[in-house]
């Protein structure tokens, strides 16, 4: 038999799960439907006004989600640290890098950025377009969508590589018509101990960085952005699952933001065609990644050994 305390805890979790699930579903339907409807009109005529309206609708959707986080998940303690050199604005243009551990990371980004930065887009797989509401919304809102081809496919048809680059370039350039934050998960996948071991990663808390996506974004947008922003997310009590987060089972989340200076040689280089530039770029990125790894280590130690 469950004790009264345990029964109360189970009931609270069920109630919270139903409440959160219902609000998120309703919120997505209410805001997703007009985005899709307005998006269909873009098939007939491109319109900056429609793009701006869709962004506003999406921000309203995020506002409701953030209200849930602040009011239903009030037990979660947020430790947000912004480097003084980083000046963020809702009307800015930013490229952002981040470590990646969980599906929760994207929600953390949305929670942090809603009142501080323009709507965040990120590179997504083309296959996601077939997910109802979400996939179509990504396309309508200007998320750069990439078709991934294997090395063998590209070897048989080299044109595939150039076609993908052209599509990615077009998607990035379209962002310039409005404020934006373009997020790149540099590791290319979520961190797990298994992947870390398989890679033989030289970092304690990170996978090896992949340079291609960031190099592409910087080559297209680097001279036109306000800052290259680095977000570091740490879960001091262990990496949570998406369900755990929305059930309020994540005690603490640390978000650290800093500005990374972009060397002039990066903006003048050609990652695709210049082998020496690729090696130099990866060296630079590896240095940035080492600094991030050391920062994560410092934050983890700080929470393991609190001063108060």
UniProtKB/TrEMBL annotation:
Residues annotated as domain Phospholipid/glycerol acyltransferase: 94-236
Taxonomy, superkingdom: Bacteria
Record-linked InterPro entries: Plipid/glycerol_acylTrfase (IPR002123)
Gene Ontology molecular-function annotations: acyltransferase activity
Xref: Pfam families: Acyltransferase
Protein name per Swiss-Prot or TrEMBL: Phospholipid/glycerol acyltransferase domain-containing protein
Source organism of the structure: Acinetobacter nectaris CIP 110549
């Amino acid at each position: 038999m469950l004790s009264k305390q345990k029964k109360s805890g189970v009931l609270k979790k069920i109630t919270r799960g139903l409440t959160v699930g219902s609000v998120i579903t309703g919120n997505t339907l209410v805001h997703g439907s007009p985005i899709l409807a307005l998006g269909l009109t873009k098939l007939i005529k491109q319109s900056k006004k429609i793009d701006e309206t869709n962004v506003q609708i999406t921000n309203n959707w995020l506002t409701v989600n953030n209200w849930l986080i602040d009011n239903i998940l009030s037990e979660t303690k947020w430790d947000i640290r912004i480097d003084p050199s980083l000046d963020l604005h809702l009307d800015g243009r930013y490229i952002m890098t981040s470590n990646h551990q969980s599906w929760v990371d994207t929600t953390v980004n949305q929670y942090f950025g809603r009142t501080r930065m323009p709507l965040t887009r990120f590179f997504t797989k083309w296959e996601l377009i077939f997910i109802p509401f979400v996939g179509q919304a990504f396309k309508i809102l200007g998320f750069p969508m990439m078709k991934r081809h294997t090395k063998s496919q590209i070897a048989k048809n080299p044109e595939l590589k150039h076609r993908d680059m052209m599509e990615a370039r077009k998607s990035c350039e379209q962002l310039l018509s409005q404020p934006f934050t373009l997020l790149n998960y540099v590791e290319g996948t979520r961190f797990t101990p298994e992947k870390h071991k398989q890679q033989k990663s030289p970092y304690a808390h990170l996978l090896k960085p992949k340079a291609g996506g960031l190099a592409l974004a910087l080559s297209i947008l680097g001279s036109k952005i306000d800052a290259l922003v680095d977000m570091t997310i740490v879960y001091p009590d262990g990496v949570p699952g998406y369900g755990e987060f929305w059930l309020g089972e994540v005690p603490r989340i640390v978000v650290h933001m800093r500005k990374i200076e972009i060397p002039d040689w990066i903006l003048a280089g050609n990652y695709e065609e210049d082998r020496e530039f690729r090696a130099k770029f990866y060296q630079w990125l590896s240095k940035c990644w080492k600094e991030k790894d050391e920062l994560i280590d410092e934050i983890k130690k700080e929470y393991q050994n609190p001063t108060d």
